[in-house]
Write a structure and sequence with these properties.
It is globular, with a radius of gyration of 17 Å. By secondary structure, it is α/β, with parallel strands linked by helices. Helix 5 runs parallel beside helix 7 and helix 6 runs antiparallel to helix 7. The protein starts with a strand and ends with a strand. It has one domain: 3-Layer(aba) Sandwich (Carbamate kinase). Strands 3-2-1-4-8-9-7 form a 7-stranded mixed beta sheet, with helices on both faces. It has a two-stranded antiparallel ribbon with strand order 5-6. Helix content is 41%, strand content 16%.
């Protein structure tokens, strides 16, 4: 599928505190325009958890006496299923197949759009995006969140942090480490990064709220963001 791109659609833009209806309306319109340009264009939309994941994971951490990372992950995964079902309902005329919750299962991709959600504990939906990209021969993952670029450090904590235009997988993985922690806030999760590097994939991190910028990425035009790989 040479015209395939995988969009890792962060929960932070689907449901930052509640469902962002205006964003989803604009995203729906733009994606349909892109898909009409060439019937060979195909997209896999992998949905993150956003506010539902954060709210319920925080509740669990406050209530439970024995904290379990697997349980925290499952709460986050179920939130991704909720968001993915909503996105599926928006694109269901272009998506003839069920929401993917296990990228290792027998998956059909018979229309222009495939919707996916979280799979199992141990990583985020970024890793699901890598699995699906590998499965269908994709080499581009666009990681859309509420962050416009990757920085050398967390700019909220380090005033000397600077934005990065391009970075190798080796250098990026030194920044994010090798371990996954539920709810970990990083541009692309460590497990996904290891898999993407192995498969020689390119990941572009950009602000998903800037929909015109997302279209520029998909069309191979000049864009604002960070390229990893």
């Amino acid at each position: 599928m040479s015209n395939l791109a995988v969009l890792s659609l962060g929960g932070s833009i689907i449901a930052p505190d509640k469902v962002d209806i205006e964003f989803l309306k604009s995203f729906d319109k733009a994606i349909r325009e892109y898909l009409k340009e060439d019937k060979e264009n195909k997209l896999i939309l992998v949905c993150g958890g956003g506010a539902p994941a954060r709210v319920y994971q925080n509740a669990y951490r406050e209530i439970a006496s024995n904290k379990d990372n697997n349980i925290q992950d499952w709460i986050g995964i179920k939130a991704t299923h909720l968001n993915a079902q909503l996105v599926y309902s928006i694109f269901n005329d272009l998506c003839s197949d069920e929401v993917v919750t296990n990228p290792s299962a027998d998956i059909k991709f018979t229309n222009q759009v495939l919707i996916a959600a979280g799979w199992k504990p141990g990583f985020s939906t970024d890793t699901d995006a890598v699995f699906l990209s590998q499965r269908f021969g994709g080499k581009l993952i666009v990681n859309l969140s509420n962050i416009a670029k990757v920085y050398t450090a967390d700019p909220k904590l380090d005033p000397t942090a600077t934005p990065i235009d391009n970075i190798s997988w080796t250098d990026f993985r030194k920044m994010v480490g090798d371990e996954w922690v539920p709810g970990k806030n990083c541009p692309f999760d460590p497990i996904a990064s290891k898999g993407a590097q192995k498969e020689n994939m390119k990941v572009i991190c950009a602000d998903g709220r800037n929909i015109e910028n997302t279209l520029k990425i998909l069309r191979g035009e000049s864009f604002y963001g960070t390229t990893i790989g």
